[in-house]
Amino acid sequence: MLPFSQYDAAGRLRHLITLDGMSRDQILELLERSRHYLAPNGAMPIRTRALEGITIGNIFNEPSTRTRSSFELAGRRLGADVLNLEIQLSSRVKGETVIDTIQTLESMAVDVFVIRDAEPGVTQFVAENVYDHVSVLSAGEAHLSHPTQGLLDALTILQYKGGFRDLVVAVVGDVKHSRVARSAYQVFSALGVGELRIVAPDALMPNAGEMPQAARFSSIEEGIAHCDVVMMLRVQKERMTQASIPDSAEYHARWGLTKIRLGLARPDAIVMHPGPINREVEIASEVADGPRSVIREQVTNGVAVRMAILETVIGNRRLRGDHR
Amino acid sequence: MLPFSQYDAAGRLRHLITLDGMSRDQILELLERSRHYLAPNGAMPIRTRALEGITIGNIFNEPSTRTRSSFELAGRRLGADVLNLEIQLSSRVKGETVIDTIQTLESMAVDVFVIRDAEPGVTQFVAENVYDHVSVLSAGEAHLSHPTQGLLDALTILQYKGGFRDLVVAVVGDVKHSRVARSAYQVFSALGVGELRIVAPDALMPNAGEMPQAARFSSIEEGIAHCDVVMMLRVQKERMTQASIPDSAEYHARWGLTKIRLGLARPDAIVMHPGPINREVEIASEVADGPRSVIREQVTNGVAVRMAILETVIGNRRLRGDHR
Amino acid sequence: MLPFSQYDAAGRLRHLITLDGMSRDQILELLERSRHYLAPNGAMPIRTRALEGITIGNIFNEPSTRTRSSFELAGRRLGADVLNLEIQLSSRVKGETVIDTIQTLESMAVDVFVIRDAEPGVTQFVAENVYDHVSVLSAGEAHLSHPTQGLLDALTILQYKGGFRDLVVAVVGDVKHSRVARSAYQVFSALGVGELRIVAPDALMPNAGEMPQAARFSSIEEGIAHCDVVMMLRVQKERMTQASIPDSAEYHARWGLTKIRLGLARPDAIVMHPGPINREVEIASEVADGPRSVIREQVTNGVAVRMAILETVIGNRRLRGDHR
Questions:
Q1: Which fold has domain A147-295?
Q2: Which residues belong to CATH 3.40.50.1370 in chain C?
Q3: pLDDT by residue (tens digit) across B158-212?
Q4: Gap from B137 CA to chain C (nearest CA, Å)
Q5: Closest Cα to residue C181, out of C215, C217, C153, C218?
Q6: Which of the residues B49, B60, B96, B107 would you substitute to probe the A interface, choosing the one with the greatest number of A C-beta atoms within 10 Å?
């Protein structure tokens, strides 16, 4: 068997499992396509019938998330049918029953699976086992990958900074456990960001060898100095403990993005966060709601990116002649 | 900051948080508009594309309610996209995270929020914090307000009685804890109902000073005598206890609407209930299912009223030129 | 009151509660109609607007099932609005509140109820209490009935075998507790299957007198010998215990469909299973995934059958002039 590839024989995107290995041109093309789905201010969201007749299975292991809503709206605004399913696929991994669940939906003519699961490998496993005409899109996989988040982050930077080559970008917080950080690392490396920094307490820094092109900082002040982009990560209680930080207040004192600390970055630096934010923990409210924050624009861009990805994989299927 | 208003600068309805302070003309115009959405008997439900391109976020703190279904169908029959979200907003009220949740959905181009929450103030709080082009509709707020219920109750009375001025209307049961009763009081006062009565055991009567225009009765027999409209309220076990009524049977004996008691009202009196009914508790089955009951018509009117409200707030937005 | 009938005065299908008593011609007509909804290989699923303006209430007592998804997609691909409701109707059966729930939805102009419930009699009870223009479709009722499953099983056999008269069909496993087996028995009897066998451990065999036209086998080897169709049933842990079979491995050893056992059937025998399958319990993976398995085709046929049923009951309503 060939090693798994998320591209088809012609090298076109079929699944979206990871940004790892994606070329600069492929990414820029996706970002360009995403821009088409951004309504000029004051307009209704862009809607097309491009995916009329297509069925999307939105499989999430949690009842309701922003990413689920984003994919649901992306699909519907392209005219697709979206079937929401709250299934813990990985709890079914015993034997082959995850595949049975997927094959059942495939047999009902589901064309695209959007999968959020906590178990590493589930999305690729599904992608390896679907019909040729079916696509699988990751909506977040364990701590490993969140490719549509990486793309929406890149789109946001492109919007505000016009490019990537001259930028200093800092990813700050619990980098070790973050799928957002991993996808960001991949997309920013591919795009040739000028300087990429990961900024974290030692205990929350990825293992040596991971993210080799990033400069490592164990102080937030040094890490964000002269940055163009400060991307904050969500932190969880148990990770603070792991980093010997007793509570949220202490985390904020040592690692929170405050207005004062933001003063160390470039005057026109933008502040990003994948959400949901912990106010007064990893980020001060006055920063999250301040003039440099582009957090809400990231959410808007998320719908656009997901529309672009859906249109791309179905368009590529049509190019292959897989008309099922 | 200006005090909160649910009207825009031109005085047109933008949010629907309460019926308190709404004028007779405003209410009658909404009822008139609601009538357009009532199919003549034998016809399919009225459907339009008036809200095509509009996204409604249906945020309920409970898995499945009649009101959620009513709003969902109202939105879809106008051509809108409806996103169902089961979120306990009030449990997020710590810090500002309720706003973060709302802003995230706003950033995905949700145009209207329909909110059911158990915490007083949440719907207004949301309305105070959304973009200018966004509307917030209460689907029931704590014990305080259930404005679409009040409107559907008024529409039902208009349908069966042709007006309000000459009517005697009794609201019977646990008035103290009822958002339905409060919205009914507000709408009936504004419409100038001839005589408005609240009829309840002492322990379930609102505090002195509340509902000043209503006459108070502590006997159901006296309260419903010669009434044109008897509106029963749902009672809960713990409220009976509070009123020193040991059980449902005893509540029924003392406060249930039986056929005999209904004989005290006018011969053409109608019986209303917001549902779900407790049979043989606050209402006898032979009354609920009898010829004077308009309980099912209330449900039908509920969809029409919600269609009218949705069309109104979006129409008013278009008049303001908030085309987002 | 007339005894309940799922047919209207003209003898046309109005509800689908059971296949019991359905004639060969009625069944064949439904199967013929189902074929219209099977896309030729390589095509998009068939979509029409035949049910535009129709609202389907999908009431399931479980969060997410294949049957729910199948009915949801069937309804949407016909242009209907589908309202998903997770309600345990039977837990409401006290008093008449199951009817109150249904009547509330009826009053919102729900036209068709699709009901899955664990309590025997609930679907018929609902069907006896709805408006003349409303239809009720069973999506699985206790251990008694699963009529759309029976129809999809028949459609699958028709597809692969071209008819029924000359076939030997074996239904194997926990026949006693299976609604799938009961609906299969009814449909195969009506269609005049050549020889119908039920094959089960004694403790899982239906009571004497039930399924009188089926031959009984207490050995799987004898039961599937020379069969054209082997229909396996899902087995549950507690049923094994009831049959004095200690565990899944032992069940597989005694009652599992293995490749070797399948060798006893006709060389062109097909293998069916309603899903979800228990791999290496009632069926070996090499059989479930093997060339004789038509399990996935059954799922595809399920959507087609449900589209045909929905179109039929609404079509019959139009013929009656019940235009609501």
A1: Rossmann fold (3.40.50)
A2: 24-146+300-320, 148-293
A3: 999 999 999 999 999 999 999 999 999 999 999 999 999 999 999 999 999 999 9
A4: 19
A5: C153
A6: B107
